Amino acid sequence: MGKTIKGIKEKIEKGEAQIFTVQQIKEMLRNQERISIDDVDIVTTATCGIMSGTAAIMHFKVAEPGKFKKAKKVYLNGVPATPGPCPNENLGLVDIILYGTSTSIENPDYGGGFLLNDILKRKEIEVIIESTDSKTIKTSLTLDKIKTARIIGTRMAYKNYMAFINPSDEPIPSIFNPIPMEGPYKGLSFSGCGELNPLQNDPTMETIKIGSPILLNGAPGMIIGEGTRSTPEKPNLMIAADLHHMNPYYIGGFRTAAGPEIFNTIAIPIPILNKKILANTLITNDNIPLPIADIRDRRIINKTNYKIAWMGDERPSYHPQRCANCEKCLVAERCPTLAFKNTLDLEKCFGCGMCANSCPNNVFEMRTGKVTLQTNNKSIKVPVVCRQSDIKRAKKLAEELKYRIESGEFPIR
Ligand code: SF4
Ligand code: SF4
Fold it and tell me: What number is the average pLDDT over the span 252-258?
């Protein structure tokens, strides 16, 4: 017999609901524990990774009414945003849409993702408006002055993404690696949290629906539709939430060889209403294929799985005593989240692995997966040189969601 949302809600109210994080369920599976629908009411799933389709819609005051006619160009810390759609003529107000991938006109390493992280950290943001009546307004603001600030993700939580490799001799710059990817077959980058991902645990969207409540970067939000390029085989979601309630740990910038990107973290509960829904949550990384594409044209040329890709450590170990103070520090130059500047800031670290693959003196050590490929009748082992998803952040948000449901703070629908 199945269960109902009403019944699960009653159990939550009585403090009797059996809620597990997705990592707990996978651990139980690996320990060969028996799991039935009587043992599990909700599984909290999550993912964290680069999500290029992220925009912020904001509204704020920049001057007294009548100071300028209408904004033509808007820059926040040098990052261009698109004014509108509302014109706010002569009101001293602007509405803007800011892309998470927008690049600063002053600093090619700084973009929308880094800016949103700075806004959430309550830093002072420099604002420049160029108006249609040829005026330039310079001011500054902090999050409390931004009346409306909502994130809309047009393509989030992609189920089962891809890995990329360069079969050619030429280094290839792309958004899939912090530096031009070296070849032939020198390293592999990949995205996707595999068995933790909400859509991997509910692939036919039995419980994940339009209107379902979710956590986006720690803020309560909602699924507002299917994402762009979503298909039944490779679904993704369109999601919205209020920036004011987000935690800067879960959202930020990520430098790539083709400009700054943005990462987000999403958690979604899966109520276990019947055996089919439970069975879907019992998938593990070894059963989730990871196609490997040629970085030049995204043609699939090989495949592996998420178990192999995610082997190793979640974070690097740091040995500052080994540092030779090189004239040019490759780690500081390459770290995509700017987590290393003389010392390692673990709050900013994404666990991508680039530092361990770059420092010649093993100041950073981190084990990452190695993928075996067949090429030219030879078997070669290719190391993962960059992870563009972060299971540590995903697991943390899955835990946060579990506690919020248990405490009655998060609605189940
Ligand atoms: S590359 Fe390694 S050894 Fe050289 S300065 Fe950077 S951390 Fe130190
Ligand atoms: S793993 Fe290394 S390169 Fe990657 S974010 Fe952390 S410190 Fe930076």
Answer: 98
pLDDT over 70 at 1, yes or no: no
Select from 345, 171, 348 the least CA-distant residue to 254.
348
Between CA 277 and CA 285, with CA 279 as vertex, the angle to 5 degrees is: 115
CB-ligand 2 contact for 198 (6 Å cutoff): no
CA 231 to CA 236: how far, in whole Å? 8
Q: If DSSP codes are grouped into helix, strand and coil, which group holds residue 386?
A: strand
Mean pLDDT of the chain: 96
Looking at ligand 1, which atom is closest to the CA of residue 330?
A: 1
- The verdict on the CB of residue 353 being under 6 Å from ligand 2 is yes
User: What value, to the nearest 5°, has the Cα angle with vertex 347 and ends 153 and 164?
Assistant: 55
How many whole angstroms separate alpha carbon 249 and alpha carbon 255? 16
pLDDT reported for residue 375: 81
What string of H, E and C letters represents the secondary structure of 48-77?
A: EEECCCEEEEEEEECCCCCCCCCEEEEEEC
What sign does the CA torsion over 345, 246, 153, 399 have? positive
Rounded to the nearest angstrom, the distance between the alpha carbon of 336 and the centre of ligand 2 is: 7
Report how far ligand 1's centroid is from the alpha carbon of 376 (Å).
Answer: 36
Taking the model in full, what pTM does it have?
0.97
